[in-house]
Design a protein that fits this description.
Layout lengths: L1 H8 L3 E3 L2 E3 L3 H4 L2 H7 L2 E6 L4 E6 L4 H11 L4 E6 L3 E6 L2 H19 L1
Antiparallel strand pairs: 1-2, 3-4, 4-6, 5-6
Helix pairs in contact: 3-4
Length: 110
């Protein structure tokens, strides 16, 4: 419908049958925005895990920033040197996570 297209154009995300609009301010803080500058790639690894590649020796800093942001869709994080593994409870949680990260990266790199 026209309303669905309008909501999508505004950046609304449909999760569990409801529309949700997140702004960068609600997505995190200055530390999170700074940490996102270290992210190089974000990829799903199945429906319940996302792999985040960072600059060398930066994964733990990014993991801490995500933990402090208290994103409810992220159930656990394992951080290596330059790779994060984010555990999610559902495919819709993964959609929310990718939307959040995409918005943050767009804000930083635009």
């Amino acid at each position: 419908s026209s309303v669905s297209r309008d909501l999508a154009a505004l950046g609304a995300l449909r999760v569990n049958g409801r529309y949700r609009v997140d702004t960068v301010m609600s997505l995190g803080n200055t530390r999170l925005l700074s940490a996102m500058r270290l992210v190089r790639r974000v990829e799903p690894a199945g429906p319940y895990m996302t792999v985040v590649s960072t600059e060398p020796a930066s994964a733990k800093a990014v993991a801490l920033a995500i933990q402090e942001a208290d994103w409810l869709e992220v159930k656990g994080i394992i951080a290596e040197d330059s790779t994060l593994f984010l555990a999610l409870a559902s495919p819709s949680d993964q959609k929310v996570l990718h939307h959040r990260i995409s918005q943050l990266l767009d804000e930083i790199f635009d």
